[in-house]
């Protein structure tokens, strides 16, 4: 098989995987914007169990229900949301629908990406991928949950205290609210992946553990820059709230990477030997 044939073969496999992903994510996204969840209670041996069933509703749909929950959870009392643009409400539903689709469809996306990459990986790389897969998923979900239920509401309360101190009207554009809440919450999910990234690069022999400790100052600066980029406000407070846990997680990943490297240097057989397979 020539080089051109290999390229077309890889592109064909990519197209096949993308089609399989679209066949799952497309209906998921459609369900979020075309149906609402109507609650009901199922009685099981005298124990009421709250459940919900989908019902066609293109306007007050699942995304609108999630939006109501975001407002109730994240915003302090008294804040008024404004629909500043004609299509803001539609864009808000689309953004929330895409987020829900990404969350619920992520296991399938990861499965398809893994199925595409595994044949090209070495044995040690496949083993590492299996070992860090569950911790990475748990850390992402944990970080996103902290962002949604704790840090994002705390940030809104803190910022609107400045609004109250200046005796300004507590109003916020609905598009600004949803964009800030989603980006800010997802940023914490990404930040919590940092220890896995640091540890994996050391396990694969790409970066020595000592390099993580040596360049901690650069990590601090990179954390501040990342916080500045992902937070859509100019206060600086949100940047610090992102950067502080990011620095701590970086140091935690460096610690576990160093512990694994010290164990390997003492002659204990590592679980993964770089270059094997």
Brief overview:
By secondary structure, this protein is mainly alpha-helical.
Could you characterize what this model shows?
With 277 residues, the chain is mainly alpha-helical. The protein has a domain at 3-192. 71% of the residues lie in helices and 9% in strands. It contains nine helices and four strands; from the N terminus they run αββαβααβααααα. The chain has helices at residues 3-34, 62-74, 88-117, 123-165, 174-191, 194-203, 209-214, 216-230, 237-265, and strands at residues 35-44, 47-56, 80-82, 171-173. The strands form two sheets. A two-stranded antiparallel sheet has the order 1-2. A hairpin with a 2-residue loop joins strand 1 and strand 2 (47-56). Helix 2 packs across helix 3 (88-117) and helix 5 packs parallel to helix 9. The two termini are 24 Å apart.
Number of strands: 4
Q: Could you tell me the radius of gyration in angstroms? A: 23 Å
| Relative strand content | 5-15%
| Sheet with most strands | 2 strands, antiparallel
Detail the poorly predicted runs.
Answer: 269-277
Strand order of the largest sheet: 1-2
Shape: globular
How far apart are the first and last residues' alpha carbons, in Å?
A: 24 Å
Class by alpha and beta content: mainly alpha
Mean pLDDT: 85
- SSE order: HEEHEHHEHHHHH
Q: Percent helix among the residues? A: over 70%
What count of helical segments does DSSP give? Answer: 9
């Amino acid at each position: 098989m020539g080089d051109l044939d290999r390229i077309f073969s890889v592109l064909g496999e990519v197209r096949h995987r993308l089609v399989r992903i679209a066949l799952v994510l497309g209906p998921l996204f459609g369900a979020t914007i075309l149906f609402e969840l109507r609650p009901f209670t199922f009685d099981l041996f005298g124990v009421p169990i709250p459940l919900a069933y989908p019902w066609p509703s293109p306007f007050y749909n699942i995304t609108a229900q999630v939006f109501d929950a975001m407002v109730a959870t994240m915003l302090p009392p008294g804040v008024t949301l404004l629909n500043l643009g004609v299509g803001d409400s539609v864009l808000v539903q689309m953004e929330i629908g895409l987020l829900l689709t990404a969350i619920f469809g992520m296991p399938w996306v990861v499965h398809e990406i893994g199925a595409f990459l595994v044949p090209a990986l070495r044995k040690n790389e496949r083993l590492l991928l299996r070992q860090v897969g569950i911790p990475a998923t748990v850390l992402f979900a944990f970080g996103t949950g902290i962002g949604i239920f704790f840090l994002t509401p705390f940030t809104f309360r803190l910022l609107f205290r400045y609004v109250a101190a200046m005796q300004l009207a507590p109003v916020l554009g609905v598009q600004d609210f949803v964009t800030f809440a989603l980006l800010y919450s997802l940023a914490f999910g990404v930040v919590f992946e940092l220890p896995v990234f640091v540890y994996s690069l050391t396990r694969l022999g790409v970066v020595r553990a000592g390099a993580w400790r040596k360049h901690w100052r650069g990590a601090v600066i990179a954390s501040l820059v990342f916080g500045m980029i992902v937070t859509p406000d100019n206060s600086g407070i949100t940047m610090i709230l992102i950067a502080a846990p990011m620095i701590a997680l970086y140091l935690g990943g460096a610690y576990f990477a160093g512990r694994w490297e010290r164990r390997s240097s003492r002659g204990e057989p590592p679980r993964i030997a770089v270059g094997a397979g």
